[in-house]
Amino acid sequence: MSVIMFLVTVLIGFMIYSLLNSIRRPRNFPPGPRFLPWLGNTLQFRREARAVGGQHILFEQWAKRYQSQLLGLKLGQEYVVVALGHELVREVQLQEVFEGRPDNFFLRLRTMGTRKGITCTDGQLWYEHRNFAMKQMRHVGYGRSQMEQQIEHEAEELLQQLSRTEAAPIEPVNWLAQSVLNVLWCLIAGERITSNEDGTLRRLLELMNQRSKLFDICGGLLAQFPWLRHVAPDRTGYNLIRQLNAELHGFFMETIGEHRRRLEECQARGEQLPDNDLIFAYLQEMHSQRQDTNSFNETQLVMTILDFFIAGSQTTSNTINLALMVLAMRKDVQAQLHAEVSANVHTVGAETDAFPHLSRRESFHYMDAFIMEVQRFFHITPITGPRRALWPTKLGGFDIPKNATILISLRSVHLDEQHWNEPHEFRPERFIDAAGKCCKDEYFMPFGLGRRRCLGDALARACIFSFLVRIVQHFSIVLPEVETPSLILQPGITLTPKPYKVRFVKRS
């Protein structure tokens, strides 16, 4: 009996210790809501975020409630710090201590159960493969003329598709996503993904859109309570991600297999090995290094492709989509853009329809200012990250524990009322200086800062600019009479516009 009492006493003691430890706030931790036993702030966070329209808005409300630009939360068993305002956001992005990535169930599920790739890794693996990927993407034309040629080709394909609509109302987002992703895929795999008869790309993009809307930057419930996948696999999104992973993995492996066969054929014939895309370069690197010390392997290649695929599938096309929505709603802005494009489009002989090359971008001051204002105003990635503190450190006078997750509120910077004049007004002119030229602003950082800066920023900027110039050059974007798009975006991993339709009317 005494043994049973002892065990019961130990169990009760352990539960009391666990309870007290779960609600204990670390010493000098940033202010925030009180922790509930074992749950932290998870339920409160999700409930209030839904009520106000997104976690990005909730964080700003909590910053006012607790009078701090640095918030301290606990989501499940994970300590989470949210940085708001230009000073703290900049510090987090530029300090080495915050270059880590969390290692949790959701991020491993994102990368098919591994901790591979570039986006969700850190340390030596991240540094080595990020540098290799950027070096090879530059080699195959990323940021240079070859990328421009791919963009021109996809822009022409898009214009032909828009012409075939014969000014009927359409939702442009799916067409835009396919065009942008095909530019990226040509640099990765040396070819376009799909033709008009093939629905593979559309299917993958639809799954990506579902994933984006179902989760948030914190990973949703799966990140805090992975066991819920056994109870509610559909509601938590677990089945969706597994389905997406399976289809993407099969698609990537088929492409990698085709590249392997081409390399073997070249080797058999004694021909020079191709290196005109990222996959070829990676496969050759795999064969050139020692197997016992080599971090270049097939799984890492698949995850690297996945990182580029996810990065290129939504944010860029959604930015263009939002820009078109604004142009349909603001005829004055559209007219000014068209006037600038008409005045600057390059002319070759009697041909006045030549593509406006990126090399002449400095002549399109209002277009650049318009694009910047779209990115600032809509901030489709209002919360970026997540980062991980690599060692105990201080931020804003508070102690940040090792392995704490850091979230970065870009929205709080892009809508800072102390810096921007009437930040909730859409006004491209705020980026035009007294000389009439587009000017930079240190508070404008849609692609982030530092070594964790978005890998695809050069591609994104080039696609957004070139696609918009080409569309404005050839079409008037007109709202159907019954259409009134909403400026309130749908929350998720990224913010997306609610479905809307516009008419693309060919200019005479």
TrEMBL record:
Residues that hold heme according to the record: 454
Cellular component annotations (GO), alphabetically ordered = endoplasmic reticulum membrane
Cofactor(s) this protein cannot do without: heme
What EC designation does it have?
Answer: 1.14.-.-
Any single biological process term in GO: organic acid metabolic process
Membrane-topology descriptor: Peripheral membrane protein
- Keywords tagged on the record: Endoplasmic reticulum, Heme, Iron, Membrane, Metal-binding, Microsome, Monooxygenase, Oxidoreductase
Q: Identify a single GO molecular function assigned to this protein.
A: oxidoreductase activity, acting on paired donors, with incorporation or reduction of molecular oxygen, reduced flavin or flavoprotein as one donor, and incorporation of one atom of oxygen
Where is this chain's protein located in or outside the cell?
A: Endoplasmic reticulum membrane; Microsome membrane
Q: Does the keyword Heme apply?
A: yes
Q: Origin, by domain of life?
A: Eukaryota
- Protein purpose: May be involved in the metabolism of insect hormones and in the breakdown of synthetic insecticides.
Family statement drawn from the similarity comment of this UniProt entry: Belongs to the cytochrome P450 family.
Task: List the protein's name.
Answer: Uncharacterized protein
Q: Which organism is it from?
A: Drosophila virilis
